[in-house]
């Protein structure tokens, strides 16, 4: 598929998808709310006294050095871990008791491990409907949602291709399509561009921007500080505790990067990974 075809497919798909922001905003509830959250493994603290709120439609990046607690914080937000102290709420409910799985789409850092799965792209995206229909037969309406998700990420032409035959960037698009097929309000991505070539990374972030523009809340853990500065609207900088939480341009001007990263700090405008 040419870049022009991909752009057209993305535009067509996003034009037809309903706005996810409206439901959450109408309910007047934040997507994520953490209050004085702390968590540790045995006696080792990993996250300490973290409070933050993510509202519907935001595009938030979590950054920090290796071992800073980024992935742990994400798991606390999603209810995969229960805080040792404080509270974590997801769509207004206790995160560890939240069971409305179709509202959250998750793309793991190692989604590329699925490259060994002997299934097609359409079968991957079909899995996004399971929270709605279980493992039964999909209706015509369900398949329409699957096809729309494929069009949104520019993967319609690859629908019948096996996942084993995709590039890293194409695989990540397929897994985003699976999240879209679940009609998620929140898209969570854990370092999704690891192992993806530079050209595909640019297209990947264009896709995230288009999805966010139509109202989907994006929560991104990213090691590439240059990409974060270029694309995210808000930065949460973490190294066990919060060093910064605010607009991206203010993060660039602050000393949070040096304080949190120390000698690992890099020039943001360099876009290094």
From TrEMBL:
Documented EC number(s): 7.6.2.8
Gene Ontology MF term list: ABC-type vitamin B12 transporter activity; ATP binding
Pfam families linked: ABC_tran
Ranges of compositional bias, category Polar residues: 1-11
Region (Disordered): 1-26
Catalytic activity field: an R-cob(III)alamin(out) + ATP + H2O = an R-cob(III)alamin(in) + ADP + phosphate + H(+)
SUPFAM superfamilies associated with the record: P-loop containing nucleoside triphosphate hydrolases
Annotated Gene3D superfamilies: P-loop containing nucleotide triphosphate hydrolases (3.40.50.300)
CDD domains: ABC_Metallic_Cations
Stored SMART domains: AAA
Residue span, ABC transporter domain: 32-265
Keywords associated with the record: ATP-binding, Nucleotide-binding, Transport
Function: Required for corrinoid utilization. Probably part of the ABC transporter complex BtuCDF involved in cobalamin (vitamin B12) import. Probably responsible for energy coupling to the transport system.
Subunit structure comment from the entry: The complex is composed of two ATP-binding proteins (BtuD), two transmembrane proteins (BtuC) and a solute-binding protein (BtuF).
Record PANTHER family: IRON TRANSPORT SYSTEM ATP-BINDING PROTEIN HI_0361-RELATED, METAL TRANSPORT SYSTEM ATP-BINDING PROTEIN TM_0124-RELATED
Family: Belongs to the ABC transporter superfamily.
Protein name per Swiss-Prot or TrEMBL: Cobalamin import ATP-binding protein BtuD
């Amino acid at each position: 598929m040419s870049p022009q075809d991909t752009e057209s497919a993305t535009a067509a798909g996003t034009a037809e998808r309903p706005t996810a922001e409206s439901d959450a905003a109408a309910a007047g509830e934040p997507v994520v709310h953490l209050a004085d959250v702390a968590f540790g493994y045995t006696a080792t603290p990993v996250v300490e006294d973290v409070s933050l709120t993510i509202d519907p439609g935001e595009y938030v990046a979590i950054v920090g050095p290796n071992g800073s607690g980024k992935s742990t914080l994400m798991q606390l937000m999603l209810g995969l871990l229960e805080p040792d102290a404080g509270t974590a709420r997801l769509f207004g409910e206790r995160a560890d008791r939240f069971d409305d799985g179709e509202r959250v789409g998750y793309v793991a850092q190692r989604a590329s491990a699925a490259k060994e799965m002997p299934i097609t792209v359409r079968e991957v995206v079909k899995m996004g409907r399971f929270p709605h229909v279980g493992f039964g037969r999909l209706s015509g309406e369900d398949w329409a949602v699957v096809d729309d998700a494929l069009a949104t990420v520019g993967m319609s032409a690859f629908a019948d291709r096996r996942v084993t035959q995709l590039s890293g960037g194409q695989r990540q698009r397929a897994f985003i399509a699976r999240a879209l097929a679940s009609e998620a309000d929140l898209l969570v991505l854990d370092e999704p561009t690891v192992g993806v070539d530079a050209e595909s990374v640019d297209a990947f972030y264009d896709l995230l921007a288009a999805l966010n523009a139509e109202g989907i809340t994006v929560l991104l853990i990213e090691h590439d500080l240059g990409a974060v500065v270029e694309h995210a609207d808000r930065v949460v900088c973490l190294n066990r505790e919060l060093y910064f939480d605010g607009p991206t341009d203010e993060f660039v001007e602050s000393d949070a990067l040096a304080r949190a990263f120390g000698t690992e700090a890099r020039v943001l405008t360099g876009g290094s990974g």
